Amino acid sequence: MLYIIGLGLGDEKDITLRGLEAVKRCNKVYLEAYTSLLSFGLSSDGLSTLETLFGKVITIADRETVEERADEILSEARVSDVAFLVVGDPFGATTHTDLVVRAKKLGVFVKVVHNASVMTAVGVCGLQLYRYGETVSIPFFTETWKPDSFYEKIQRNCMLGLHTLCLLDIRVKEPSLESLSRGRKQYEPPRYMTIKTAIEQLLEVKQNHTQPAYNEDTICVGFARLGSEDQMVVAGSMKQLLTVDFGAPLHCLVIVGETHPVEEEMLGFYTLGGN
Amino acid sequence: MLYIIGLGLGDEKDITLRGLEAVKRCNKVYLEAYTSLLSFGLSSDGLSTLETLFGKVITIADRETVEERADEILSEARVSDVAFLVVGDPFGATTHTDLVVRAKKLGVFVKVVHNASVMTAVGVCGLQLYRYGETVSIPFFTETWKPDSFYEKIQRNCMLGLHTLCLLDIRVKEPSLESLSRGRKQYEPPRYMTIKTAIEQLLEVKQNHTQPAYNEDTICVGFARLGSEDQMVVAGSMKQLLTVDFGAPLHCLVIVGETHPVEEEMLGFYTLGGN
Fold first, then answer.
1. A79 touching B (Cβ < 8 Å)
2. Which of A172, A137, A155 is nearest to A252 (CA)?
3. Which residues neighbour A256 within 8 Å (Cβ) at sequence distance 6 or greater?
4. What is the mean pLDDT of residues A73-87?
5. Residues A97, A123 within the same domain
6. B102 and B136 both lie in a single domain
7. What domain of life (chains A, B) (predicted)?
8. In whole angstroms, what is the distance from residue B74 CA to residue B112 CA?
9. Would you call B18 an interface residue with chain A, using a CB distance cutoff of 8 Å?
């Protein structure tokens, strides 16, 4: 059996009882490392926090491991219980559909243990999840590569009065250009897009449009470390949020559409200089 | 402190360690009863399962209780730790923004413990959450009252190729018309909309439109008891899903938009008569 278990958003305490039971039953435990694992006690001193809680050795599975070693993981899961832990919900912002498809094709049973995802936890700011349009991802721009397909989606949401959740780029274990040219893989340090960078890129893109969907006065909500003890939620115009230091990752951003009175009242609690 | 704690989707084992810790710290524990509580051991024989797990007496808070006794709950929370438990995520499909707004106005500290919500758990069928448009709610039709504002939203999502999550009506503790006329409140038995009723209503509404956004051949995914051990997920045309017995509540429905190959592959596993 392959258990795909959501860890939730904060730290090791955000696993569910069902998830914990399943992990303890497993012979092998993998942990996906696509997103930030800092709050799970997985920074420099190894896997201590989670491993202590689970009483298991954990194997970190970055994107490469999962792609290259999926068959191995799945053969293990065919004969014994294997846990694949993911931050958030298994089918939230980062999806693990590929692994499930491969498992099902091989006849490996899959069980999913759900958990909180950034995609619903943003509800904490008071904007109703019903009133969100399509979610967009904002990738890091480079000097020469500025993909802006998110703009059109935001524009559509704005025209419909809907809110837009912007998921911000994460670059973990990116091979450095230098190392690629030398034929020996070395990795860039992980990069997590900040709200500041996201807004700068959003404002850069809107300059290409004559009647932009948003501008520096558009109200947004910035979230940092959502679901953690030290989460930060601030509402304000893009211009205002540019000046806020949101601290450590992960960050995400909501572009606010039309609001109802209750939504406004809740947003007020998070507004810069608000009540 | 007022703790608003998500219980997740399945049963008592879906609370997180953080949530359980918080409940155990609380002097008073309320449980919102807007949605189905059947799987939390709260059917006929009282609150046994959750109360045993928590070692606490639980007070059921239906919509009336929350509206009428919010001040009382909040005064308790001002001087001691109070837990308000909700099925799913506190800000998922059913929102508790009102209570939070009132708490914040009274200066009561609020802490939210997130959990899985139907709004992300539907990801299990393989349709990417990125590719969903606005969520709609489908209310029970009566002979004389057939509100169909969901149609326009579905139409918009379809035109954009987006998937639509349809949340189905729940009627808990509705005063019976008869009892209202007698001036003494008696309640109708709880009603949970089935996928069959939802599709019948969807097809009824589309008859009012000359170029309907969907028809009985439109592919949908039906979910019953999502997140529970006995969850059921079936993909098929509206016509096909009408013939499926999805069993006990809660049900929800996704109207499928344009699909990518990986989405199709995953859907295949849930298709009637599929692999």
1. no
2. A137
3. A127, A163, A218, A219, A220, A221, A235, A267
4. 95
5. no
6. no
7. Eukaryota
8. 15
9. yes
